[in-house]
Every structure is written in structure tokens, then in C-alpha cells.
Amino acid sequence: MSSTLLWFRRDLRLHDLPPLLEAAAGGAEVLACFVLDPRLEKSSGPRRLQFLGDSLRALSEALDGRLLITRGRPAERIPLLCKQIDASAVHISADFSPFGKRRDARVADALSAAGVTLHATGSPYLVSPGRVTKDDGTPYKVFTPFFARWREIGWRAPAQSARATVSWIDPGRLSGLEPVDPPNPGAAMDIEAGEPAALRRWAEFVDSGLTDYADDRNRPDKPGTSRMSAHLKFGTIHPRTMVADLNVRETGPGAYLRELAFRDFYGAVLAEWPASAWWNWNRNYDGIEVDTDAAAKKAFEAWKQGRTGYPIVDAGMRQLLETGFMHNRVRMIVASFLVKDLHLPWQWGARWFLEQLVDGDMASNQHGWQWCAGSGTDAAPYFRVFNPTAQGEKFDPSGEYVRRWVPELAEVAGVHKLKAGRPAGYPEPIVDHAAERTEALARYGRIG
User: Is the pTM of this model over 0.85?
Assistant: First the structure.
């Protein structure tokens, strides 16, 4: 009987998984594996590693312990595993990130030398990067026309389930494979990981939160978001599975579909312009004046710790520190504050987010930051500078969100303007927003 290798990466599930169907085709025996790459371990914060580890434990349990986890460079480990089981092919979901494409190219070269093929089927996206293009084949740079074409192209139905009919190879019967345990840094989590948790959470949201999503998604004081971003990041659920439950003619589901399209758009942008991971997509903004001196670094530390003196900013940054999550509207507010009030490089904030966020995703994170900085595709006009006080009053009108995450303000009325004064222990504003808005506009104007 032939053997194949199913290499899990950003698809830690067994339902709606096209590579599994391909791996098991023709009755082949399948070895399920995950390679802990030291490079990714080093670049991931403890909560993201915890979510990964918990998801791997759930996957292993679903496979009755027949998931082999090994550590090392994939270009070395994957060929070794193939040799152990005499595999004819390795099956994966395609990865379109710059790191993923380089890694997979090296693995494909190493496998080719051994006469083994690497097969990519599907991707983490509803519509894979490269499929949504203009009539002349060029990529979109603006979301709205991308969205229209994206809907025209459409997506496949969820893949059939094959887990019950697969002949899984028990890694325990193999020798010399050096299995390791999933990561378990002991980080506190406010969200349950793994495929069963993803399916439960999605069902709960469809039942109780989807109808009001269009109205509530911008309100950090309400449980109005799905909290599915980490599950999408690690592939414990596929967006195809989710879209099957959306009646997009209704307002709430239609608004949710648009957010999934944004995820696909940013994935396509990164695939087409990989340098935009850390460089301005619009290189005209390379000349913007930013602060990087000792005073800037001090301000950056205050921002990271939620000690800026602006309640909505501090609430978001403290939520991030404590939970590894931040509401999307608040992400935009704190990003605008870092770039346009503190005049710091957007890359500083993007790197901090990737270190802290459970759902830290290179495409969405980096291009969300560039939207706020004005240097990306579909960027907010450079003259749009969020007023943190006005944003707090609009999207957290009762101050409930601020009071939840800034205990110094728990008993204070009017938490956004603090007209009655600041309680002991809560800092004065580290900058004057009106003055820094003027300064930001002057700096942007000088590169025009």
C-alpha cells in the first residue's frame, strides 16, 4: 500500500480540508505531521504559541494520538519523514506569505531530489491570492473593486469529510522520528483553541451575534465581534465552513462577508508585494519624518504599557497586554495614536502587535497598520487623524470598555474627557493631541 505525508501548518483541523482528501486518495496510508520550526517559535509571542499548542493537542486527540510533532527546519525534517514511511507525496495547504513561500520552495527542492512531490491544494483563504485580478490580469490595489470581482469569482463549497475513512499511520510504530510535545508556555488565554472550540464558537456567534454584527462590530463595550480571527489564523476552521452559514442578503451576514473579503484582499496584497510586510507599500511615504530618539522610545514604552493618559488608547493597550486580543476599532485608534500623535514608525507598532496578538497575522496586521499610516493600499487619507477622545465617546459611549481595562478609572464619570480631574495613579496625557495633529499634517505635507 502506498504512503503519503499530510503536513499541517495553518490548517489545524480535519473538516473541510482538501489536502486530506488528496493525501488519502486511492486508499493511501497517511502520516499526519506538524513541524515546529524554531524560527517561527522564536518570532511568536507566548499566547500565540499557547493557542498553537492547544490546537495541536486538540488535533492529536481527534486523531487518537496519531499526529507526529517534530522540531526542526522543514526542508530537513519533511524529507526525513518521507524516507521513514517511503512516502510518494507530501500534501499541504498552499501558503502565500513571503516566509511560507520561501520555506515551501526549499522543501519542494529537497523532496524533488528524493523523487517525492509536494502537492498544494487549497489555502487558508476563501478565494486564494492570485485568483482575483482585473481584466488585464493585474492585481487590485483598491478594496472596493476587488470586493466586487471577488464576489463574482466566488468560492468552492466546503470540502467533504474524509477523516473516518482514512488509514492513518501510527507514528509510534516508526523509529528515529524524535517526536516532541506541542508548545505549552503556560500563557493565560481568554479564548479556547482547537477545531471543536472553533466550530462551537462559530455556531454560538451565528445564533446570537450575527444579526447585529453590522451595528455592534465597532463597539468595544459590546460582545459584538465573532472572536474567530485566531481560529482563522491557525486554520482550526476554514472560511468556507463559515460562509456556508451566511445569508449575505441580510445586513449582519453581509457585513461579516465583507470582513472576510478584507482578509483575502490583504492576503493577496502581501502575496503580490511581499516587501510590504515591513516596507511602505506606497514608497512615496518612505520620506516621512519619524521620531526614533530616546524620547520616542520612552513614548513607545508608555504606549505599550497603556500609560499614555488617553483612556481609550490605554484601555486597548492593556487589553492587549492582558489577553493577547484587542477590538478592531481600538486597534485603529491606538495605531493612529502611535503614528500620528507620537510620530513613531508604524513598523514599531506592527512588531509589538505581532508579539502580543493571539491572532497576529502578517498580511492583516501589517496592512492594517499601513492603512492607519496612510502608506498602504486603500490607505486612510494622511489627513485623517483619529481624535482618541472623540473616538472613545463615539464607540464606547458609556465608558464601560475603558473602565473594564483601566481600573484607575473604574469609578470615574465621563472617563473619556475626565473633566472632573484624573484620579491618583492615572497619568497626564503624554502629548497634546491638537498640537500633534498639526505636526503630523505638516510632516505628511512635506513629502507631498
Answer: yes
pLDDT surpasses 80 at 12: yes
Rounded to an integer, what distance in angstroms lies between the CA atom of residue 281 and that of residue 8? 31
Terminal CA-to-CA distance of the chain, rounded, Å? Answer: 66
Position 448 confidence tier, pLDDT thresholds 50, 70, 90: low
Alpha carbons 183 and 50: distance in angstroms, whole number: 6
CA pair distance 93, 339, nearest whole angstrom: 36
The answer to whether residues 229 and 189 touch, using CB atoms and an 8 Å cutoff, is no
- The residue with cell 502575496 is 271
pLDDT digits (tens, 9 = 90+) for 80-98: 999 999 999 999 999 999 9
Rounded distance between C-alpha atoms, residue 193 and residue 333, angstroms: 28
Contacts of 383 (CB under 8 A, 6+ apart): 441, 444
- Measuring CA to CA, which residue among 20, 417, 43 is closest to residue 4? 20
Hey, which bits of 112-218 come out as E strands?
Answer: 117-120, 167-168
User: Helix (H, G, I), strand (E, B), or coil: what is residue 74?
Assistant: helix
Handedness of CA 370, 373, 379, 385 (dihedral sign): positive
Distance of CA 245 to the CA centre of its chain: 22
Residue 393 Cα to chain centre, angstroms: 28
